[in-house]
Amino acid sequence: AQSVSQHNHHVILSEAASLELGCNYSYGGTVNLFWYVQYPGQHLQLLLKYFSGDPLVKGIKGFEAEFIKSKFSFNLRKPSVQWSDTAEYFCAVNLLTGGGNKLTFGTGTQLKVEL
Amino acid sequence: KAGVTQTPRYLIKTRGQQVTLSCSPISGHRSVSWYQQTPGQGLQFLFEYFSETQRNKGNFPGRFSGRQFSNSRSEMNVSTLELGDSALYLCASSLKQGFEQYFGPGTRLTVT
User: Fold this and answer.
1) Could you read off the pLDDT of B61-96 as tens digits, one per residue?
2) Chain A residues whose beta carbon lies within 8 Å of the beta carbon of residue B92
3) For burial by CB atoms within 10 Å, which of B1, B54, B77, B87 has the most?
4) Residue A115, SS3 per DSSP
């Protein structure tokens, strides 16, 4: 079955530490890839997206992600996290061959940044 | 542009009842998708509507249904509510197939 895996369920970092969250998917077809963030008490917000082209994409708030097609991975990175980055992060995949919009989400990674 | 809006924001229902949730997409977006978010199952796709037609459907029982109106507003209905239907129901809109989806704040449904 098609799936999206996020390897880290809970991550605790100190401010200024570097962040990398893993995401792997199992689709064989053409996909669009996304990272969404859910801050406490807020709704899901788009962090960044990959459709095609340069596999290194930059998003909001200093986040970036790298698409590695051979590894079916789309890992999220940030060089230096801030306390305000405390949130839940979701990787999501939209398989294009089926038509329409149907996001499959990973289970999410709860990030806590300590001062 | 105004974002995706959902009403009501909170709802408490009793087992066996039915409920209707409403979603207004971003102006110009014709694709509306619904998702269920629970602590145990995470975010799961319910269905997607485009131009008043259901284009995709997730693995949920027939008690879950939806529709879209000509102005792209969408409703979802859950009949014969069960305790396990307690969840945050999210609506998202998108401009085109494969494009990013923008999410609303959700409707928190509690079934007692």
Assistant:
1) 999 999 999 999 999 999 999 999 999 999 999 998
2) 44, 103
3) B87
4) coil
